[in-house]
Specification:
This protein is of the alpha+beta class. Helix content is about 60%, strand content about 5%. It contains 27 helices and 11 strands. Helix 8 packs parallel to helix 10. It is elongated, with a radius of gyration of 31 Å. The two termini are about 30 Å apart. Belongs to the resistance-nodulation-cell division (RND) (TC 2.A.6) family. MmpL subfamily. Pfam families: MMPL. InterPro entries: MMPL_dom, Mycobact_MmpL, SSD. This is MMPL family transporter.
């Protein structure tokens, strides 16, 4: 592996113009394909295998056109204190509002709240239902603007008028996620490298990778049924890993130059060693993201595959485009003090046509000057590694106790899908939600939908009526709407309004009660029924996600364990990596529950309403963080493994790994955290939750697990850390991530032996 990548890096450096042009052609071709591609389909929100989804499917089957009725909205009208919306002084304003909305684009019908009797008992609140001819995703901005304008005009009558529902919610307020992440990355890279060229190169390649990924998603969206929404996660992951992988290779390139290698040789060695770590780190991320497909949720599968594609592109760009760009700026990538140090005379001799010093073998290590510069660059990380080396037990116990304590709130984790109640009070959707809850009760915003299949009943109408009576008699149900039959009169839909809010635990208990008593009801009536609606759907999705978590972990962790077993040729190192991951992800869940569910510190993040954690969050967090955690594992421990292979004692190899990779891992973690934290600047609570969860997970894993827990365990294990049964050692393939084969090879010829054209290109660069 190392030898193959070494040749790839040298070849890309030498043929840098062709490599750069090839990538430019690929990006241009994919962008043109995206521009000519058909409109992407909607991401499927279906959840196969759950009762709520089966109930929706039954409605669509027995009520033809129900799904095609499309989006709807509710216009909520609230009279001033002490007045009623039914007063004659408001009649004209309500009539005008209904007429204006009915004339809007894509509107199929509007109910008059006074004629439809959708007025609260005290007369203070009423609502009008707006039905559209298209689905929520196809409501145009013009349609939403027309509704908003009509609502604004109605407010001049003295009524409080708000609008909610799926047709009202447009795109959430955009944050500065990508820009913040790239901005912080630029600052961190500049501090890390001390060179504008070295700081800019990872950013350039990351942007190229993300642009290619997003264009590919658009180009393939129509054929694969993948909408641009699948690109959100791909963009987030693509920026993070694109910068991190290029950072690792550029950092190794600078190290090899400091050891006295010429530019092309340094590029080859960087790709042969750090590039090997990038390949296997990328494979772990791809396994974790592509593994989301085992859950059986179409939207998660598409998101995972799109993000995995972004990682593959980032790896390919790192192995080819990064060394090619190094060829254009071979000396500009070096820090100022290095450029004026030992490498500067070599560059001058090269420009005069004389050869550079022979390349040093990897086993031999750097010269004194290079070693001194390496120690200076990693001084803080070496001091920390020495501290861990002297006190491994307190560091191990401290990191484990800290993460364990942070994980305790996760024991109370509740899953659901926050709705309008989680939006800021500055939005009309949230104000409409609150007005309906005040006027009609908290359960009005999340009625239970009961679908009754009476085909097998002797008298379908009587059977449906009996089911409706039993629902009305259930404790916790405040009202039951008259059944709505289909054309064949053998299936009915019943709306039951609970006494509590959709996300309340009491409402969840009500759903369980109705389902538990279902057998007796079905036996007495001869009809079957299923329960769906907001609360029931949350319950079913949460159960599906929970049930899928263990199989998902077994698949992903199992495959990653085998991969790390091959990479590190050790049984205990992959086990330690998995244990550290469980600590960091547990602490992340605890932080999510503390803020977004229990509300402690929620105001600091702009979260106005707490509630259950998003149902898909655990699987997304586990998948993404596992892949990224293994990134840091490979980056850091591969250098320790390299030192062990080259003859260092295990305890000293820990220090060597930190000397060379500690600063790189720290910079990568800060960049990745800033990318994820940037998505918390959006207005949606769900985006804040995703950004926060990923950001704190990376912080815990990089700075507590990989910087404290991992080295402490390795120091305590000593030689045993690298133990591998002999029989297994013979069976496993040798991939040579540590570049041992490169240390045994014949030194590469000096740059003076390079053909004149290539040499002149390097001089001009």
């Amino acid at each position: 592996m190392a030898t193959l990548l070494y040749r790839l890096g040298r070849g890309a450096f030498r043929r840098r113009r062709w490599v750069t042009l090839a990538w430019a052609a690929v990006v241009l071709g994919v962008v043109l394909g995206a521009m000519s591609a058909g409109e992407a389909g909607d991401d499927s929100d279906s959840m196969p295998g759950i009762e709520s989804q089966h109930a929706f499917d039954l409605i669509n089957e027995r009520f033809p056109g129900a799904e095609a009725e499309g989006a709807d909205a509710r216009i909520v009208l609230v009279a001033p204190d002490g007045r009623q919306v039914t007063a004659s002084e408001y009649r004209a304003a309500i009539d005008t509002l209904v007429a204006e909305v009915a004339d809007g684009p894509q509107v199929a019908a509007v109910s008059d709240p006074l004629d439809a009797a959708t007025v609260s008992q005290d007369g203070s609140t009423a609502y009008a239902t707006v039905t559209y001819e298209v689905t929520e995703d196809n409501v145009t901005d013009a349609g939403r603007a027309d509704l908003t304008a009509a609502v604004e005009r109605a407010r001049t009558s003295g009524l409080t008028v708000e609008a909610g529902g799926g047709a009202v919610a447009g795109e959430p307020p955009a944050g500065i996620g990508e820009f913040l992440g790239i901005g912080v990355a630029a600052v961190v890279l500049l501090i890390t490298f001390g060179s504008l060229a070295a700081a800019g190169l990872p950013l350039i390649t990351a942007v190229v990778g993300v642009a290619l990924t997003l264009a590919s998603i658009v180009a393939l969206g129509s054929a694969l049924g993948m909408s641009t929404a699948s690109g959100d996660l791909a963009m987030m992951i693509g920026i993070a890993v694109g910068v991190d992988y290029a950072l690792l290779v550029v950092s190794r390139y600078r190290e090899e130059r400091a050891e006295g290698h010429d530019a092309r040789e340094a590029a080859g060695l960087a790709v042969g060693t750090a590039g090997s770590a990038v390949v296997f780190a990328g494979l772990t991320v791809v396994i974790a993201l592509a593994g989301l497909s085992v859950i059986g949720v179409p939207s998660l599968t598409k998101m995972g595959l799109a993000a995995a594609g972004a990682v593959v592109i980032a790896v390919l760009i790192t192995l080819t485009l990064v060394p090619a760009l190094c060829g254009f700026w071979p000396d500009a990538l070096l820090a100022r003090r290095v450029g004026k140090g030992r490498s500067a005379p070599s560059a001058r001799r090269f420009r005069k046509g004389r050869s550079t010093p022979p390349a040093r073998r990897l086993r031999g290590g750097p010269g004194r000057g290079a070693a001194r510069r390496t120690r200076e660059a990693g001084a803080w990380s070496v001091r920390w590694a020495r501290f861990v080396q002297r006190r491994p037990v307190p560091v191990l116990l401290g990191s484990a106790v800290l993460l364990g304590a942070l994980a305790v709130p996760a024991l109370d984790l509740r899953l659901g899908m926050p709705g309008d109640e989680a939006k800021p009070t500055s939005t009309t959707e949230r104000r409409a939600y609150d007005a309906l809850a005040d006027g009609f009760g908290p359960g009005f915003n999340g009625p239970l939908t009961v679908v009754v299949d009476a085909r097998q009943a002797d008298d379908p109408r009587s059977a449906v009526a009996a089911v409706s009576d039993r629902l009305a008699a259930t404790a916790g149900v405040v009202s039951v709407a008259p059944p709505r039959f289909n054309a064949a009169k053998d299936t009915a839909v019943i709306q039951a309004v609970p006494a509590t809010a959709p996300t309340s635990e009491r409402t969840e208990e009500l759903v369980h009660t109705i389902r538990d008593e279902r057998h007796a009801t079905e036996s007495a009536t001869g009809a079957t029924f299923e329960v769906t609606g907001t609360t029931a759907l949350n319950i079913d999705v949460a159960r599906k996600m929970t049930d899928a978590l263990i199989p998902y972990l077994l698949v992903v962790v199992g495959l990653a364990f085998l991969l790390l077993l091959v990479v590190f040729r050790s049984v205990l190192v992959p086990l330690k990596a998995a244990l550290g991951f469980l600590l960091s992800v547990g602490a992340s869940f605890g932080a999510l529950v503390t803020i977004f569910q229990n509300g402690h510190g929620a105001g600091l993040l702009g979260v106005e309403e707490t509630g259950p954690v998003m149902s898909t969050m655990p699987l997304m967090l586990v998948g993404i963080v596992f892949g990224l955690a293994m990134d840091y594992q490979v980056f850091l421990v591969s250098r320790m493994r390299e030192a062990v292979v080259h003859g260092e004692r295990p305890a000293e190899a820990v220090v060597t790994g930190f000397r060379h990779s500690g600063r790189v891992v720290t910079a990568a973690a800060v960049i990745m955290t800033s990318v994820f934290a940037g998505f918390m600047t959006g207005g949606e609570t769900l985006l804040k939750m995703v950004g926060f969860g990923l950001a704190v997970a990376v912080l815990f894993d990089a700075f507590v697990v990989r910087m404290a827990f991992v080295p402490a365990v390795l120091v305590l294990l000593g030689e045993r850390a690298w133990w591998l049964p002999r029989r297994l050692d013979r069976l496993l393939p040798r991939v040579d991530v540590e570049g041992e084969a490169l240390g045994r090879r014949t030194p590469a010829p000096a740059l003076a032996a390079v053909p004149d054209t290539d040499r002149q290109d390097t001089v001009r660069a």
